[in-house]
Amino acid sequence: METMGEELDGDVMGDDLDGDVMGYSTVGAARRRAVARLPAKPGWRHGIATNGVNLPRPGLEPLPMVPNVANGQFDATNVGAIITHSARPQRPFRGERLLVFVARVADAGVVPPGMVMTSGVFVGTQLQQLQIGEINLETYGPGAFGVRHAHSPAAPGIDINIGTRLTVAPTGTQKVQVSIQILGSTLGN
Q1: I need a surface site. Which of 4, 12, 63, 135 has the fewest CB within 10 A?
Q2: Number of domains within the chain
Q3: Nearby residues of 56 by Cβ (< 8 Å), 6 or more positions away
């Protein structure tokens, strides 16, 4: 009678396993497995960690400003008013371009005269101009060229304010509608 470790027909226990591991069959072609490769991520998905989780990335986005009076409309009922357009970004934001839309409604064929002016753009408490004075906002219309800025960055929750006024008050049914957006850089999802 032979015991473990002694020769069995000239073989030592385990000598002729030929790459087998006890309990597994991994001999020859069975060892090689075909691995299915997934296609590469499309370019627009590189900022996504996993489904539903985006990585922080820079972006260019508009920041609409909300007027505090009469939806940004100057007319004969609010002569001398200063309408403040405000925004509070929800992600880090740095303004780069004011975009101001001014629409004038005529009364008996007479277009309201005057200019839409501001005493400045404020990011928090910081004035975004080199000298105290008024700026004609109509120079920042949609067709303006070369009017890019680099405002101070606004952290989430910091107010951005632009106070607007007319140089000549509308009369009768004349109206001047002012809408402001700031285009800028963001960091977020």
Answers
A1: 4
A2: 1
A3: 187, 188, 189
**Residue ranges of the alpha helices (H) in 55-129?**
none
Q: Can you read off the two tokens belonging to residue 47?
A: 């900022």
Chain centroid offset of residue 58 CA = 7
pTM, entire model: 0.70
Label residue 29 left, alpha or beta by phi (over 0 means left) and psi (-120 to 50 means alpha).
alpha
CATH of the domain at 77: 2.60.120
Q: What is the pLDDT of residues 53-81, one digit of tens each?
A: 777 777 889 999 999 999 999 999 888 89
Q: How far apart are CA 38 and CA 144, in angstroms?
A: 47
